[in-house]
Design brief:
With about 290 residues, the chain is of the alpha/beta class. It has helices at about 10-20, 35-40, 55-60, 80-100, 120-130, 150-155, 175-185, 205-220, 230-240, 245-255, 275-285; strands at about 1-5, 25-30, 45-50, 65-70, 105, 135-140, 145, 160, 175, 195-200, 225, 270. The longest helix is centred in the N-terminal third of the chain and has 17 residues, at about 80-100.
């Protein structure tokens, strides 16, 4: 039996569906009881637990052949990452108590970055899960293509505002569907100790490539406008952020090259989903 957290999201959902299609036993770990019926109807066991509830998580992980950990994302963390630390402590406590046979933890590119930034939350998770001594795989995907959802409205107006820069620089990106599919493959494997698996899409993507993908799907020109670095803090605060520094430093990491895969992606698994397919789905979803 495989216990899956985050199963109602894109990555966890793709993982859960693939395991079920293979005839494997799945325990859906859900916070919201209202979403339990749909997964129960698909043949899943259901366990109700929030990611900050160690006792409930331990019960959900009990007897599992493998556990998938998908930490919630906190985009505007308080200084010191207290929100992430609460989840990390709960997850580590639950794993220590339940002692499943193995763990697959969704991490990120940049979990090994040399400077503090928004992705440091995943660094802290890796450290805590590694310390349990359980067999663990850390899956580190690149920038999610689905982040382009925030660009749909402006792209319809012909502009893509980019914090990634310069416009012709390519970055490791990947589709959530590919992350879930690869996670399913990894979770059923046998291994000992700790391993790190990096994952990016079939080709690297520049802001210009994103604009071209939008243009192709929308049937109209879309051009890139670089958002100046000096304006980021004021802009993010105006949008409601309380602590924009971690996000700014994450963007710096991508743009300056210190958030990168160990060998610039040469050893990374390559996903199959092209950027244009993801953009088309995002535009369709936004229209609905």
């Amino acid at each position: 039996m495989y216990a899956i957290t985050g199963i109602t999201g894109k990555v966890g959902g793709a993982l859960g569906h693939k395991l079920l299609a293979q005839g494997r036993s799945v325990r859906a770990v859900l916070r919201d009881a209202a979403k339990a019926e749909a997964w129960s109807a698909r043949g899943c066991q259901v366990a109700l637990a929030g990611m900050e509830e160690p006792d409930r998580l331990a019960a959900a992980f009990e007897g599992a052949d493998g556990v998938f950990i998908l930490p919630p994302s906190e985009f505007d963390p308080a200084p010191g990452y207290p929100e992430a630390r609460g989840v990390i402590d709960a997850v580590a406590t639950a794993l220590e108590k339940a002692r499943p046979k193995k763990v697959l933890c969704l991490s990120t590119i940049g979990a090994d970055a040399p400077h503090d930034n928004l992705l440091t939350q995943r660094t802290l998770m890796e450290e805590a899960v590694r310390a349990t001594g359980l067999p663990v795989t850390f899956l580190r995907p690149g920038w999610f293509m689905e982040n382009a959802l925030w660009d749909v409205a402006s792209a319809r107006e012909g502009v893509l505002h980019s914090f990634l820069q310069p416009a012709d620089r390519t970055f490791p990106m990947v589709a959530a569907q590919d992350v879930g599919s690869v996670a399913a493959d990894l979770l059923v494997e046998d291994w000992n100790g700790t391993r790190v698996v990096e994952l990016e899409g079939p080709v690297r993507v520049s802001p210009n490539d994103l604009a071209e993908a939008f243009a192709s799907v929308l049937g109209r020109p879309v051009h890139v406008e670089i958002v100046p670095r000096a304006s980021w803090e004021t802009l993010f605060v105006s949008q409601g952020m309380q602590n924009p520094t971690p996000r700014i430093r994450m963007l710096d990491g991508f743009n300056e090259g210190w958030i990168e895969f160990a060998d610039e992606g040469r050893s990374a698994i390559k996903g199959k989903t092209p950027l244009a397919e993801v953009i088309a789905k995002l535009i369709k979803a936004a229209a609905v």
